[in-house]
Amino acid sequence: MMPHDETMILETPFHSRCLALCEINLWEDWKGYRSAAAYTSVEQEYFAVRSNTGVFDISPMIKYRFTGPDAGAYLNRLVTRDISKIAVDRVAYTVWCDDNGQVMDDGTIFHLAENDYRLCAYARCLDWLMWSAEGFDVTIVDETADVAALAVQGPTSCAVFKDMGFDGIEHLKPFGIARYPFKGAEVMISRTGFTGDLGYEIWIDPTFAEPFWDDLFAAGKLRGIRAIGSAALDMLRTETGFLQAGIDFIPAEEAIRTGRSRSPFELGLGWLVSFDKPVFNGRKALLKEKQEGSRYAFVYLDVEGNKPAEHAFIYSGSKEVGTVTTAAWCPTAKTNVAFAQVDAQYGKVGQKLVAEIYYERELKWTRVMAKCTVIEGAVFNPPRKRQTPAPDF
Asked: Which pLDDT tens digit goes with each residue over 303-361?
């Protein structure tokens, strides 16, 4: 008996093109969609972004649209950042919290037009968004399936878009939005991404997804364009210091045990909290935390050796003070980096700690107590990421 449609995994508008390139047939479930974990080699895909152009299908990303007279006021009440400061055709990174000041999710807000916004998020939360809309004249729509999207990242990404005929794309500033005609339709291009490199994201009607992919790869053929999967993306985002919901923090609504969720301050995201606006979810709790101090600190660690400190316990002397959430050897930065949540008193830059690392080789497990140091931030932060006009490689 054939499975019912509702039980079958979904395919993105770019799936036919992804399938043709996925030589090792390695897939994963991303919010109900089939998404490539890797196409050929994770290392090749990683270096495609750092040296040329890598393309990642981000269509499964949860996308909500907010329109109506109170759309801006509603979002300003919802998130910690001051949305009134985001101009039309600009994008901003933000977080939103519950009443206890615990992060529910992080994401990007696109100001598309007057009273018209898009929120890209990790978790589905339409019910919570609708409950929060009481008293506001705002329409909220889940448009995840209605928008095809690609991340086009790497030093040659701007040159590839110029070869596609997107004149002036090099002048688009970081977190800016531009629109171009494409085969009788429109493609929206934002200078955003999750790799910490020069790069863009495209947003287009699903009907035009495959033609856009074909034109993109034709234009990028001589510049080493390559499709990349989530495994390479995870290496890239680690090297550039980006947090991942569900990995580096538990969204408050998903946390089961008390004390497992985190506030923006405990994730190093205090800069996203705008106390100069009078009302937003969790404001009272966050103001109290700022005055009294946080329980935990989120830190970047430079780890001794080349063994990634995956899931390691962190010690100060003989005392366990935290745990690693993300770890990787970063090829471009030539650094063994880890993200960790530690007790707040151990979160200062320069703090010396020890990571308890276990790794297996030829059926033998080895324990390493690796020295590590709290560092300022990301280990990879190239000038080309924000250079305007964007350089032409």
From this structure: 999 999 999 999 999 999 999 999 999 999 999 999 999 999 999 999 999 999 999 99
Cβ atoms of 203 and 146 within 8 Å: the answer is no
The pLDDT > 70 percentage for the chain reads: 98
Domains of the chain: 5-59+147-239 (3.30.1360.120), 62-122 (3.30.70.1400), 295-375 (2.40.30.110)
Helices 42-51 & 230-239 angle (0-180, nearest 10): 50
Q: Phi and psi at residue 272, in whole multiples of 5°?
A: -90, 0
CB 190 within 8 A of CB 176: yes
What average pLDDT is seen over the chain?
A: 96
3-class SS of residue 278: coil
**Residues in the chain, total:** 393
What is the spatial distance between Cα 148 and Cα 158, in angstroms, rounded to a whole number?
A: 20
Handedness of CA 99, 100, 103, 105 (dihedral sign): negative
199 contacts: CB under 8 Å, gap ≥ 6: 49, 151, 152, 153, 154, 157, 191, 192, 193, 385
Range 87-96 average pLDDT = 98
Instruction: Please compute the mean of the pLDDT values over residues 140-167 and round it to a whole number.
Output: 98
pLDDT value, residue 7: 57
Do 231 and 37 form a contact (C-beta atoms < 8 A)? yes
E strand map for 252-379 = 296-303, 313-316, 319-330, 335-343, 352-361, 364-375
Residue 4 has pLDDT above 50, yes or no: no
Pairing of strands 53-57, 225-227: parallel
- Whether the pLDDT of residue 19 is over 90: the answer is yes
- Stretch (H or E) spanning 288: helix 283-292
Cα-only R_g, the chain = 21
Core vs surface per residue 267-300: b (16+ CB within 10 A) or e: bbbeebbbeebeebbbbebbeebbeeebebbbbb
pLDDT at residue number 6: 53
